Structures are given as structure tokens and as C-alpha cells.
Amino acid sequence: MTEAAIEKENKQIARQYKELxxxxxxxxxxxxxxxxxxxFDTAVEAHKDQRRKSGExxxxxxxxxxxxxxxxxGLDATSIVAALLHDVVEDTIYTLEDIEKMFGKTVATxxxxxxxxxxxxxxxxxSLQAExxxxxxxxxxxxxxxxIIKIADRLHNMQTMDAxxxxxxxxIASETLYIYAPLAHRIGLYNIKTELxxxxxxxxxxxxxxxxxxxxxxxxxxxxxxxxxxSKVIEDSLNQEDLRYDIKGRPKSIYSINRxxxxxxxxxxxxxxxxxxxxxxxxxxxxxxxxxxKIYSIVTDHFRxxxxxxxxxxxxPKSTGYEALHITVMxxxxxxxxxxxxxQRMNExxxxxxxxxxxxxxxxxxxxxxxxxxxxxLQEALENPDVNAVDFVEHFxxxxxxxxIFVFTPQGDLKSLPKGSTPLDFAFSIHTEIGLKxxxxxVNNKLVPLSHELKSxxxxxxxxxxxxxPNVNWLDYxxxxxxxxxxxxxxxxxxxEIAEEGKAILTRKLRAQKIPFNEKxxxxxxxxxxxxxxxxxxxxxxxxxxDNQKLKEFASSRSNALVSYIKRKITKPIIAEDLNKxxxxxxxxxLVFGRDEDETLEYKLANCCNPIPGDQVFGFVTVNDGIKVHxxxxxxxxxxxxxxxxxxxxxxxxxxxxxxFKAVVKLTGIDNLGLVSEVTKEISSNLNVNMQKVSFxxxxxxxxxxxxxxxxxxxxxxxIINRLKKINGIDKVSxx
Length: 736
Known about the structure:
Layout: H1 3-22, H2 30-46, H3 60-72, H4 77-84, H5 88-91, H6 96-103, H7 105-118, H8 126-138, H9 144-159, H10 166-187, H11 190-204, H12 206-240, E1 245-251, H13 254-264, E2 275-281, H14 288-302, E3 304-305, E4 311-312, E5 325-330, E6 336-343, H15 344-352, H16 354-360, H17 369-383, H18 389-401, E7 404-408, E8 414-418, H19 423-430, H20 432-436, E9 438-443, E10 446-448, E11 460-464, H21 474-477, H22 481-512, H23 519-528, H24 534-542, H25 548-559, H26 561-570, E12 590-593, E13 604-605, E14 617-621, E15 627-631, H27 637-643, E16 648-654, E17 661-670, H28 675-686, E18 690-699, E19 702-711, H29 714-725, E20 730-735
Parallel strand pairs: 2-6, 13-15
Antiparallel strand pairs: 1-2, 3-5, 4-5, 5-6, 7-8, 9-10, 9-11, 12-16, 14-15, 14-16, 17-19, 17-20, 18-19
């Protein structure tokens, strides 16, 4: 580079630094400015020999990230310092110890978190990417600012990707849409989320992006004219009330227009809400609510509102802190228009997220509980080793993007939950112990099933019992990541206890057959019963699935000396690969149908999606071809479920050895007082078995009854029948 070019570049770097201080959302004191200057000088020195792919000096990147952190996100001086230094430890001679000595522990922790994220393996494999995401979120434990600066870093990388190879652009853009946009959304950085999504689309589907971008430009003039026409109608009324306000149009993002076009299968011109009108008013905090509703009434005096489209996030802010009134009204020329009503404070929170919250709470000791609570929840889910990374990411993303509902506790406290939540999700959101001990639920004082979908405004009361414990069906009712993780963990613990008992039973039974209990025999048993791990074997012995009869068959196959001698000579012994793995695995060996999962029917697998055991599926009754089984995310699923809902049958792959099955027991006898009570007590209290349906009738002193039970296996059922026969007055007990 020539001297003149170097001088020009240095001037540009100095100009950028001054701008960084000028645009900071926070007021910076002298100490802050001193620290930022020191960080700036350190970064300039550290990166002096580095250049980016585009050819410009590398230092422009950390400065740009610091500017995003300072102005668009509005973080503090510590964050600006960390943003300037975010690549120093990874790319230059400086160490973490140097940073700690120069800038203190907090900055060093943030830089360390950012370095850890950057050093994660970048791989196309989804499960690896998911594992990386999980590790990345673990750094939240150190400091939330790590993630926020990482989002700013990603935003600047996305803004400056033009010089990169096409395949690299696609990879980074896909990762952005998969991970960073949902995160920005959850932290309340809506502007950044929108920009990340648009840039993600620009590099993953450039033709689509450019086409919509051009059309938005072409329709801008018409949009401005429409906003002017809309404003003219209400301005006089707003001015009469002495309100200070701005009316702006906000175009919908390219990404969301595209999503709408895809989802509704419409063209660009048919997307009716391509922009929203925003009324931002000035107010002190005391009058904010009052003025919002005043503006609402003025707008609806002039334009007819759509009553189903009122969103009141002023009375119940979103968990990201977002506050606003959204109404959809019939505007000029018969077009539906979304109108967003916000105070200046609400607008700042919508644009800056939590940072603006902190600013408005300065002098108030109370930290923002929303973010604290979110981080604690997230931490719990992350630290649960039982959840595999892909499941975790998928659930996390669902919970990030999901719409919220607001429900009340019996004491009148408000709780926010993702849309589609059930009483189980509510129970686990209050406390893990309450979730695990859930016996039932009342919604608005009425008993409801645990699968009941909650709606905004519901009052939910959880009925608990010391004896209650999760069963495998709960996973069908719980939707939030937290509840599902806790249920899975509890079911695993319960299975492990059964496996422990099974191990002791197996030792005794093998001794009776004169067979030693050692690893070689365990391996033989695992292979003989076609299982994977030793825990699988112990668990199935524990629940009685592998009983005396089956063990005798194993012993006789083993004791046929001649056969086993020849076998040993001609075949290698089979070793169970996962023999010592510490888990109980599922064998998806049966497809069951119906809401109670109690029917096994003839079926064929659909060719359009080729489901395999373990997939989430449903049955579809065809006209000529019996039941066809499709995956839930099959391309044809939506059409079948919407057009032929009456022909859909619930279906599920199960492990028949781990599933409760339905048995109907018939009883007859002489009716006497208290007989029904004795029968039900024997089943539920003494044998701990679930009764699903009970019906009794008495005719002229003779009683007959029918009880539907859920039992683990035949051995338990035989035990129940034998115990019931001993009850005084019972004449006959049989299985239907």
C-alpha cells in the first residue's frame, strides 16, 4: 500500500472511533471513554497486519461490531470494550491473561466466551451444528453479553459477505437463519432479527430476495401516498387532543413477505399487509396506557377495526419486554391495515430490547426479571445431559419463535407460556416438583385432561398428589422443552430403578438354573433376546417381560452341549456392541393406532414419505388401499389433515416391551355393601395399577362388573385376577 493510502486508512479508522463514541446509546463517563480508548488502541495494535477478504484493514470489523453493540443494541461500556477486543485472543499474540490484566475479569470472561464460540467446529452435519449451538448457549452462564456481542458480530459478517465464495456465503447464511435470528428474536432485538433474516434469504435464495426487494422499491411511492392518506384522516382528531406524535410506515421484511407468500401460496401483490402504520407518541410513564387507548379510540372512530385482530401487549407485555397495541383496521380503498400504537419508550424497547429496559430502570435496583428467568430456564435445559442436542435445538427454536399466551395462577399471578401449552407445561413452569407430582388440573374451575390446550386468560390450578409420577404418555401432552426434559429425566430414573430390581431377580433366577451371573452370560442373554444393552435386559426382567419360561428356554438352548459345541466351532461369538452402555433403549417394534394406542391394525407405509420405526406418524384410511401410514411432516400431511380430517387415525411407534397394555377384567358375584370399594382399593392402592374405565351393576342381589386396566405385562394381570378372586363375595374373575 502507498503511504497516501495508509494515511487515508488511518484517518478513516480515527473517524470510525469518534463516531463510535458519538452514537453510543448510553451516556459514557470519562472512565468509560478511557477504557474504550485503551481497548481501541489494543485492537488496532493487535490487528495491524491483518486484512479481511475484501482487502480492507481487519480493525474495521471489531469497530463495526462495537458500533452495533453501542447504538443498535445499546449496551454498556464494558460490552463496547469486549466487542472491540472480541477477536484479539483468537487471532493475535494477546492472551486471555493479558486481557484480564489490562481490562479486568468481566471483559476477560466475555472475550473468553466469544473465543470459545469462534473455536467451535464449523460443520455441515446438523447434529454437530446443534451440539455447537448448545455449547454456545452454555456460555450464557458466564455472561449474557457474550451472546449479544456474538449476534452483533454475526450481523456485521452478514453485511459484509460479498467478497466470500458462494458456498461459504450459503453456509454462514443458513447457520444465521437456523440459530442467530431466533436468538435475536428471543432477546428482543427485533430490528437485528429482521435484518439477519433478510440477509439470510439474500444469500440462500438470491433470486427470490432480489425479486421481492425490487417490487418493494417499486411500490414504495404508492405506500408513502397511502400512509399520507391514512394519516390525513386521523391527524385532526389527534391534534385536537394535543398529542405529540409521529406517524410512520414500516415495510414488512423481505423474509416475512416471502414466508407469507410460501405459506399462503400467493403472489407478492396478493400479500395485503406488506407494511404496518406505526403511531409513536410522546408521554410520561404515568399517562402512557391512558394515551395508548385514547389513540386507539380515535383510530377506531375513523376506521372499522377487525375485532379478532386486537393485540394488547400493553396490559400484558411479551416476555421479551415488548409493549404495544396492535389493531387491524379497514383503511382507505378497502384495505386492511395493521396499526401499531407505541410510546417513545415502548418503541425504544421494541428496537433495542433489554438494553432500553435497563436504561429506563436506572436508579431502580430491580434487574429485569424477564431475562433472568429466561436464562435460568435455558440453563436448566442445557445442563440436562439426557436431552440430545438436535432435540434440544429444535425445541429451543420452537420455544423461541412460538407465540405466547398468558394464563393466571389461582392466586391471580400472570404466567406467560408458548401457544399450544397444556396444564403439564404450566405445572413445570411453576416448579419441577409440582410438575412431577401432577395428578390433574382445573382450568377456570373445571377439571380438564392433561392434554387440554390452554388459552390466554385461563386460570389454571394444578392438583398434586404425593403418589403421582410421570408416565410415558405425558410426553404426548407436554410441549415446552423444560417440561419434556424433566419428564424424560424422571422416566429414565424410574426405569433405572426397575432395572436395578431386575438385575437382582435375574441373578436369583440364573442361580436356580445353575448358570453363573457374569459378563459372558449377560452378553449371551442380550444377544439371545435381540437387545442392545445390559440395562435393556435387566429392565425387561424387572417388568416381567422376560419371565421364568423365557429364561428356561434360554437355559435349554445353552445346555444342548452338542449343538452349542458345533455353533462355537463354526461361528464367531456375537458380542453386543453397546452391552455396557448406560441406557435403556427403545425397540420400535410395533405400530399402534387410536387415541388410547390400543389397536394393532393392518397397514401399509406410504411411498411419498417412507416412514421408519420411531418417526412421528399418523394413519390415513384410504378408499381402496386400507390404512396408509404417513410421517407427520410428510409433504402431503397438511392437505390430508385439512381435507380429510375424518379419515385420520392417530398412530405411534412403540416399544411393546415398555408400553402399558389394555386389559378388560370381568367380575361376577354376590352383591354386598362395600364390595366395589374393596375391588377398586385392591387394584389401585395395593397393586398400584391404573384403572381407565369401571362399570358395575347389581340385579336382584347378583352383581357383575367390568374394569379396564393399563398393565405392564401378563404376570401383573395374573396377580390381579388371583387377588380379586380372594375377595369375599366374588364368584368369578376372568379376562375378556
